[in-house]
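Quick question, first post here. What does this chain look like in 3D?
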Amino acid sequence: MATLRVSSLLACASSSLHCNPSVFTKLQSSPRWAFSFSVTPLCSRRSKRIVHCIAGDTLGLTVPKESNAPKITIGAKDIDVVQWQGDLLAIGVTENDLARDENYKFKNPLLQQLDSESNGLLSAVSSEEDFSGKSGQSINLRLPGRRITLVGLGSSVSSPTSYHSLGEAAAAAAKSAQSRNIAVSLASTDGLSEESKINSASAIATGVILGIFEDNRFRFESKTPALEYLHILGLGTGPEIERKIKFAEHVCAGVILSRELVNAPANIITPGVLAEEAKKIASDYSDVITVNILDAEQCKALKMGAYLGVAAAATENPPYFIHLCYKTMTKERKTKLALVGKGLTFDSGGYNLKTGANSKIELMKYDMGGAAAVLGAAKALGEIKPFGVEVHFIVAACENMISGAGMRPGDIVTASNGKTIEVNNTDAEGRLTLADALIYACNQGVEKIIDLATLTGAIVTALGPSVAGAFTPSDDLAREVVAAAEASGEKLWRMPLEESYWESMKSGVADMINTGPGNGGAITGALFLKQFVDEKVQWLHLDIAGTVWIDEKKKPTGYGVSTLVEWVLRN
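> Answer (accepted):
Ran it through. Tokens below.
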């Protein structure tokens, strides 16, 4: 990942790749490649959702435990909230819901009833804790037989994010109390259309599922959440809301897969492991998904010099080019889409080594966050099975390491479309792998492409840790993706593709360099990728360098999966 100082598991084969040093340029003769494989099948397929395959010589002898993704029964119920019996009741309240009358009693009918049930404790605690219903606030009240949690939604609720937060807060309270049976409701549904109620229920379910999940595969001891049942009250019942909740469960499964892929360290997730995970997805959804994995020799035949140049130093963990294709057997015309994810399972920076306290080299396991989002979306779509669309999921997986065979600053590599690149910074490697991946995607005859990459530190400087940057020359595609992100509750912002900045990317010896002078780095990174996209193809680049990881919580987000799935369904 360029200047950013800032997984499902393991290969059933231990592979070593031996090659003559080369950067695959037109100026050099083709090197000879030889492969030797030592196969040690130690796969445990205990989990239906994630491959647990550990190579016999895994560094550190670390064997992850089985995934503990939550298994919750979720249903919408049309019963009186106050009469509901269970361990924990979470109520989402706006600032208006907390209005009081002249006797300092709640005006809201539901809060009135709950306060009466608690003999005034709810009112007293909310006053004592200065709970005003602002976003991020919550209070907990323990009563005989159950707990009540009030969660602030702000002045009004206008986006899925608020309902996600309500679900997450309910999950946090359930984990703390080890609750088995919880319910979530709103203090008021005034002004909500039937469609809004259904979408709210879906967002609440999403928040609970993702909020209760903890990745404990690498801990010696861990506490498994007790939560088994979630009831969503007061938002309606029937097939439509149940379908939407089931949809949320499918998307969450993809998000959790993405989080686990990102969170697993580089000695667990290698390019070969990522390829195994892709094969597992194709196996699980063989009725709609096929897989093609290309090794280095096959990529060489396709003249992927930019991608193989990055991978050249990682002789112990060779590259694998992943291509999944989703397609139903129905005969209607299908919109052809591609989702391309950056797949650097570890980025040392290469000879431009990441150094210093702020380099975050220890977190460069997440430099495959784009690939994780793409595979998570593939899993979700395999569950949902939409018609009328064909989707190609593409990942050029490799490591960026240092060795005598590795790419050096000043080397020239040649992408599969013949364009030459002077590598003035080996730590701007992701765009080199994406160059060949984007060319490959265009060659599949797709109409639209979204690529996701932890590409630049510049986008974090510009937009911070919560908002991804979107770059595209297509206004229509920009509107599509922005609408999908808004519906899914993920944040992004369209950034300019300032063509004049491309002058700074010119090389004195090749067609281009791979990094610009410094300023506007997120823009020049996107302009670089644009050189490898067919002009007839609509393309959008998402720079997710800031959004893939939460520093404060030391956890991945699974960013991108929800937006990608929503976008595909809208096509």
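The chain has 14 helices and 23 strands.
Residues 97 and 292 are 55 Å apart (CA to CA).
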